[in-house]
Amino acid sequence: MSPTSCHCSTPQFYNLDYMPIFLFVKFFFSSQRTRKIFSLCSLCALWLISCATLPTQSPETIPAPTLAPALIAQGRAIYDTNCAICHGARGEGQPNWKIQLPNGTWLAPPHDSSGHTWHHPDFLLLDIIANGGQSENSQMPAFKDKLARDQIRAALEYIKSFWNDEAREIQWTITQRYPTPTPTPLR
To answer: At residue 146, does pLDDT exceed 90?
Structure first.
């Protein structure tokens, strides 16, 4: 599976919302009938295979490791100082966070289980915290010049404490499947 964009313009690893549109375009703009049928069947098969391997549907989730209490305590202090103002004291996000503002930006999403933070692997979450929301519609600032690498990791550990067990296991499974190192080095 390759990443596609979710509404926050960060890669999401199992969003197939645009597959029906792709199938329609592929089928109706192909020049030969045989190619149309073959293409449609091939794409349907690929779509079904990718749906069968979605982390939320896989019975093979990997149990998440126990969160470290000392790291959570350190992360809470960092989160309260730097993140809670936008994302809320318990990661609840801003009201109406799914509605795009008139200027094209989005409000801060929740980091608890009701949001989509847990849909992303660790390397991506660490990168977003360090480098900010790197799209034009994000208000997320970069923290790489303000927080050290260990502080960013501690903040993420605290954010993970907001998630229920199912969300933690799914996120850990995604992290294990996509263990790519952070694209931009943290300091």
So the answer is: yes
Q: Where are the domains of the chain?
A: 4-52, 69-177
**What pLDDT, in 10s, does the model give residues 173-186?**
999 988 776 455 55
Q: What are phi and psi of 86, to 5 degrees?
A: -100, -45
- Using a CB cutoff of 8 Å and minimum separation of 24, what contacts does 72-75 make? 72/154, 72/157, 72/158, 72/161, 74/151, 74/154, 74/158, 75/154, 75/155, 75/156, 75/157, 75/158, 75/159, 75/161
Q: Do 108 and 159 meet the contact criterion of CB atoms below 8 Å apart?
A: no
Nearest to 165 by CA among 93, 63, 70: 63
Distance of alpha carbon 117 from alpha carbon 111, whole angstroms? 6
Tokens at 120, concatenated: 């992303």
Sign of the CA dihedral with 118 first, then 141, 124, and 153 last: negative
Question: The CATH number of 69-177 is which of 1.10.10.10, 3.90.25.10, 1.10.760.10, 2.40.10.10?
Answer: 1.10.760.10
Q: What is the pLDDT of residues 66-90, one digit of tens each?
A: 999 999 999 999 999 999 999 999 9
How far is Cα 173 from Cα 181, in angstroms, rounded to an integer?
A: 16
DSSP state of 62: P
Alpha-carbon distance 23 to 6, whole Å? 19
